[in-house]
Design a protein that fits this description.
Four copies of one chain form a homotetramer. Helices cover 41% and strands 16% of the residues of chain A. By secondary structure, chain A is an alpha/beta fold. Chain A folds into two domains: 95 residues, Aspartate Aminotransferase, domain 1; 239 residues, Type I PLP-dependent aspartate aminotransferase-like (Major domain) (Aspartate Aminotransferase, domain 2, 3-Layer(aba) Sandwich), CATH 3.40.640. In chain A, the strands form three sheets. A seven-stranded mixed beta sheet of chain A has the order 2-8-7-6-5-3-4, sandwiched between helices. In chain A, strands 9, 10, 12 and 13 form a four-stranded antiparallel beta sheet that branches. In chain A, strands 1-11 form a two-stranded parallel sheet. At the A-C interface, helix 10 of A face helix 10 of C.
Chain lengths: 350, 350, 350, 350
């Protein structure tokens, strides 16, 4: 029997509403490369959501592609991008950023988050360094919302980062692969409009919130960034789908009747049940995550019992033979799956 | 009223069989990045089709990505890839190959096809040039089957190219974005097995033959090429979908019960009706294409009449104010659309 | 006995004036990376020569490096550089431009020169092409003065090119590896100031005109191009010498008392003697070159006689078994060498 | 009056023996790009020095270029190079490595040195990580000998690193920009032959040991690394001088009659006098360096007194307002300069 999976938030297909729209639009004839009516509507829906009708919106197939294209577009050849060392672009994108010639400059993270003071200190030291003309020039700050550890910036902490960026001429880019889980978290004090107001570019992840694939890049103030030839760059990076409608249709469905938020809220809510179950057993966490990724620290015997029935990711070894693991929920996580899991957790020895 | 479109072969959605399998498998839980059972089955089906159980098969999202990844993987930093000047990588991929550091070395095409004698002449001159250590080293030959002009290599002409490649240590890569239209053409004397036998790498295009997206790269003799870290490279190029199942499912459907060939045969057959209609009017063609792309040369008045009711691509200006245009059919081109078009052609003034 | 060499203009060491200054300054202590007084003086001398005190001047070690750095600096990621197909960046720089991600877009040359009409036609077709968003965006024009075939633009022909560049937003870059031979040619109607007035960037070649190495890049209107981080880019490209003084000292010597022009005039004058000798024998030329490179077309027997005593470059095979070859003179070509050569030419059978 | 400079080891010109050979060979005619007799002799002298007649030797203009070319040649597209975080390629090469698409993977340094245990731990964790297919693949280890802090590996510690490299299939590359200072240090237990025996590639720095410019790359076991097209790569990277003789002549001089070692020994010996002077005053050091770079930690008042008469590099701020600085000696550092400095040090307040 297959184990119930809590490995990731992309282990099922797509929201039924998306499949229905793919089905009903299937035989419509439309021009390629995003020059179709669904894509136009999807862009309009996203602009509304961000509260900025002047936003420039582009669609791409996946997150690595999106991060790479945005960073390549906004940096000049000698500039690098600053990220916490656990940042996705720093670890799990196979050197995609470097493959375009740009260094990822890493700063230590705090539960996956960048600290504005660390950033300011780094920039002050860089600026004061008489040899800095021989160094990669910091040109951009990359943060994830929610982070790779499920944690969240507050409006204050992100504003603080924004302030440093302003002081030192750095652009601010928010990786929103899991922005749905972020903005719908009970711990969040920001919505899409807040994010749009604070950064130079961000993306709204589809893949991890109910789409088959697809990410929507938003430049909220397009007149302040150089977007010349960006569509050509997307093509060059292999991110321009011939049947661009495939992504347009999905974002059209996701931003109709609040599906995007519903999906994310469901994932978060299922994750909170898992969090509560571990908490009640006194099982500690690697970080206190208010979103759909939970990182309990298990003893070996707890891990043996849980992994016999459920699959989830091992994250990192801890002291005393314990193991930090990740349980991840999605728009599709069923109550049955959660009940089975929390029931098993409830029977664990502390 | 919207015009009937003959612009491309990617202007509709997906074959119903594909949508049905997406639907029925939607809630299956599966690991990401192509580590799912559908992808495994699809790879196995493709290996059977190519007659080489030892083939290495990889899936990627789109054609530009696929060309870029294969070329980057197989070339060393100073090597370039040879293509006819009309080749897709040379013209319509926004410099994607160059963006990875490799030059596209162009030779003149003959109706879109590379001539083995041209290739041999180029290689002989290169080898004899005492300054060639200062030049880009030719490392690979890229051809399209069918070509950008819908034309086909024969088994003999492709074997001749293969022979030159062997003589000069060049790898041979076949872009099969439209391999379906090629192998099902009545003018073709090659099937997938022949292609697999003649080249070092080729890909089977999904996007232009009924899939929503997706291309299948095949290395028929994996032990003779360096595939080390190729999955990592696909990730680096942004070509590894988190929900890899999306492509696996589609190729599973396409290579079940011959859907892939049925789709292509339908497109070709509809194109032949268009070809006949123009031929009967004595309207000449840019090239004699036996596949789903037809390039009639229209007078201005013919173009005005046709473009009032149908949309198609303008290709290139010809003498006397005439215009070469492209009509393209697909798996989804209806008899009604063809009847309407051929009827209008039948009424044109020669 | 070693043959007298007419292979290139970089087969001897350096002008004695340069060696003398290297010697006399040898134990001066100076900061590295071009932050030394000799480099400052050299920059000032070059600014005077170009008639533009506001020029930005940078030094680099070699021509490939210089072309690569300038092109990388001035192009955005999706832009390419236009060159005639015989252009140095297109043929003999091992794909250096492509290695930074940029395509070299080639147009046919006319005796090594770009024709403004060809350029305009290309740009008009590109602009009119509805698919051009999928193509490399032309961003710059590269020309050589003198060209790879020793030929020269006139003020009119270069102004015509400049006009097209202006009309289509292209930057104009002049490779001046042999600008000395160009501006001192009796056929030239342009000096350094004219070049500086017509282009966005050019370089003054040292290596081929009496220096050990070194090229001086000039941006005559620095406020109109983006030079941000250009020193860092030079470092990134490996073009920033630790002992930057080495290049500064040489250009200081070259632009003191007109040495640069004297060297070039000498090379041209020696070449004219060779040209006359061939002309008097009725031996034809590949092109009519007014500078230090001469390309006579030899019969096999003429080639056998000459190559027994002199070394020179074979250029390309011609009809009837004849061979175009290159004789190249330099600042160091002696009268004895010229006499020996012209004497042998004089005895050839026509 | 100009201050006496102890900023770097490249602030003077070249050893008189080098200038003399440049002078005496100046009018010799020689082919370009290193195809001259001086370059051949220099390669032969270096092969002798490394004790490996089968070594492949190449010359390049500078260190950044050399590091970039070697790393680009030996890595495949998804591989990265491991360095301590203070490594030159990680900090002071303007992202040159990343500009060729490769990540610099950093490990913490210990006084500038890589620890074999750290390396083994990193590789063990990488190998065990189930997601490592999505990460940059470690392909090479880069170390400097002497390090950026003047410190040295012992034969044992470098052998330990070599062992880990062997266990995990990593190539080992030694940056020898200051290998002269290293092998002539009294603290060293390795000579060139030992280095050649332990690594896959290393380079012998000319610039920082008496040459005007130039580095000699050595592949001691050329049959075990892929050097195909390496000369073309050097050209592509802009590292192939037209007048290649310029570097050949210098290395010919440096490895005739032991000049290379004499230069380095002189620099070290002068540095030891500085070290003693600081030590006698009880002034501490950032690290205990046995080579030509010394890093005393000065109080503000000590710094004021010294910097009034001498120039040197500030390195990093320390606690209590103190400052770590660098004094660097070279082949050209005079006894007068040392006496003046040690005299001033002797009068400092502790």
């Amino acid at each position: 029997m297959q184990k119930v999976k809590f490995e990731t938030d992309y282990q099922e297909g797509a929201s039924p509403e998306i499949l229905a729209l793919l089905e009903s639009s299937n035989l419509e004839q439309a021009s390629g490369y995003g020059e179709d009516p669904h894509t136009s509507r999807a862009k309009e829906l996203i602009r509304r959501e961000t509260g900025r009708p002047e936003s420039a919106v582009y669609f791409m197939a996946g997150g690595t592609q999106t991060n790479t294209a945005v960073i390549k577009q906004l940096l000049s050849p000698c500039e690098g991008v600053i990220s916490v060392s656990t940042g996705h672009i720093s670890v799990h994108e196979s050197g995609a950023i470097e493959s375009t010639g740009h260094k990822v400059i890493t700063l230590p993270g705090h539960d996956g988050l960048l600290d504005a003071d660390d950033l300011r200190e780094y920039m002050a030291a860089f600026t004061a360094d008489p040899t800095n003309e021989h160094m990669v020039q910091p040109g951009m700050v990359y943060v994830s919302y929610s982070s790779e550890l499920g944690t969240l910036y507050t409006k204050q902490t992100l504003s603080d980062i924004k302030k440093v960026c302003g002081d030192y001429g750095l652009r601010l880019f928010v990786d929103g692969a899991r922005i749905g889980a972020a903005v719908t978290s009970e711990a969040s004090d920001m919505d899409m409009r807040d994010i749009a107001g604070l950064c130079d570019a961000f993306y709204i992840g589809g893949t991890k919130n109910g789409a088959l694939l697809g990410e929507a890049v938003v430049f909220p103030k397009p007149e302040t960034v150089n977007l010349r030839h960006f569509t050509t760059l997307i093509k060059q990076q292999g991110g321009l789908l011939a049947k661009g409608r495939l992504i347009g249709i999905q974002f059209e469905a996701l931003f109709t009747d609040g599906l995007y938020y519903r999906n994310a809220r469901h994932a978060n809510s299922q994750a909170m049940k898992i969090k509560r179950a571990f908490t009640e057993k006194g099982i500690p966490f690697l970080v206190d995550s208010p979103t759909n990724q939970q990182f309990p620290i298990l003893t070996q015997s707890q891990h043996e019992i849980l992994s016999a029935k459920f699959s989830y990711e091992t994250w990192q070894p801890m002291d005393n033979g314990r193991l930090a693991v990740r349980f991840c929920t999605s728009w599709a996580t069923t109550d049955e799956a959660i009940d089975a899991l929390t029931d098993t957790i409830g029977k664990l020895q502390a």
